[in-house]
Structure formats: C-alpha cells, structure tokens
C-alpha cells in the first residue's frame, strides 16, 4: 500500500465533495488533524473507518486501499484493449488488402494476355503458344475464383478447419490442378502431332 497515494486519493475525494478537512473529520468523529495526516500520507485511516469513508465518498474499500478509482483503471484498460484490437484489425486488413491487390493484378494481367493471344489467334504449329494462352487464361480465371473465395470469407473458413481436413482439401485441389495440367499437355501434344 502506498500511503501517499491513498492520502492524495482521500484529499481528491474530499475536494470533489466540496468539504473541508474539519467537515470530513466531524462526519467521521475524528479530529481535523487526523484527516490532515491521512491526506499527507503520514498516517492511515483505521480499518474500522474504511467502511464509513467508502460509504461517505461512494467508493469501494479496494479503491481506497489502491488509492484510485476502479472505473478509471477499467476505462484505461478497456481503452488500451480497444486500441490494441483496432491496431490488430488494421494490420490484418492491410495484409488482406495487399493479398487481394496482388491476386487481382496477377489475374488481370494474365487474363488480358490470354485474351489478346486468343484475339490474335496465331495459327501456328507451335504448341507452346497454345500452352501459354491456356496458362494465362487459367491464371486469370483462377485468380477470379480465388478473389471470390477470399472476399466471401470461404477461404478463411477453409483455412480455420482442422489440419486433417485442410490436408484433404489441399490434396484434392492439387490433384485437380495436376490432372488439368496433364490433360492440357496431352491435348497440346496430340494437336501438335496431328
């Protein structure tokens, strides 16, 4: 216990109430000098008086012993927690926004390149051209699908699932991608050989 802090708190409470040390002392049946010693931190109020002091100033006994109002402490803690949550949400939002921008840019560039390649319709026997066009269009559509999953929150729900379920989804998704690549390569080879 910090006697000076308690004394300052009692003095603050008395002044808030707009009474003198003598008036406060009279209410508790003690001398004005006793109240003065409490407020300077020289002495502490007797334990038996704490209940009367708490009732008189409409504060709790722990507030008197701590030398400060709980509500001020709680308001400060609540404010600090709210600020920390706000900072965290801002940082999280910034990270998500950067990811969304990156995916959007990659998808848009890929889609534009793929559509330009489709519009040119370069009729050649070069299978790499068709493979590049398909890859660009696939990246564009994939980015669009990822953006839909990201913005609707489905991707976050999938991410928060248990690790076993995540492994199944990852294996399934990787399998589909591998099958698409293999089929694309086979079709490209068949077209080249025809």
Automatic annotation (TrEMBL):
Which ranges carry the HTH cro/C1-type domain? 10-64
**Where are the membrane-spanning stretches?**
102-120, 132-156, 168-190
Keyword terms? DNA-binding, Membrane, Transmembrane, Transmembrane helix
Which Pfam families does the annotation name? HTH_3 (PF01381)
SUPFAM superfamilies per the UniProt record, alphabetical: lambda repressor-like DNA-binding domains (SSF47413)
Listed CDD domains: HTH_XRE (cd00093)
Gene Ontology MF terms in the entry? DNA binding
Protein name as it appears in the record: Transcriptional regulator
Identify the species of origin: Agathobacter rectalis
Q: Lineage from the top down?
A: Bacteria, Bacillati, Bacillota, Clostridia, Lachnospirales
């Amino acid at each position: 216990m910090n006697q000076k802090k308690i004394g300052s708190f009692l003095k603050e409470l008395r002044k808030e109430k707009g009474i003198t040390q003598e008036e406060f002392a009279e209410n508790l049946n003690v001398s004005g000098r006793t109240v003065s010693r409490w407020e300077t931190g020289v002495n502490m109020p007797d334990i038996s008086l704490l209940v009367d002091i708490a009732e008189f100033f409409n504060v709790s006994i722990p507030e008197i012993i701590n030398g400060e109002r709980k509500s001020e402490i709680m308001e400060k803690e609540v404010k600090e927690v709210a600020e920390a949550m706000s900072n965290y949400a801002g940082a999280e939002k910034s990270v998500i926004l950067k990811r969304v921008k990156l995916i959007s840019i990659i998808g848009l560039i890929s889609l534009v390149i793929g559509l330009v390649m489709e519009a040119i319709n370069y009729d050649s026997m070069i299978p790499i051209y068709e493979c590049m066009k398909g890859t660009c269009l696939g990246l564009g559509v994939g980015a669009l699908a990822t953006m839909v999953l990201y913005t609707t929150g489905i991707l976050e729900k999938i991410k928060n699932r248990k690790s076993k379920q995540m492994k199944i989804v990852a294996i399934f998704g990787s399998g589909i991608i591998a099958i698409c690549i293999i089929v694309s390569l086979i079709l490209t080879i068949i077209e080249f050989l025809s």
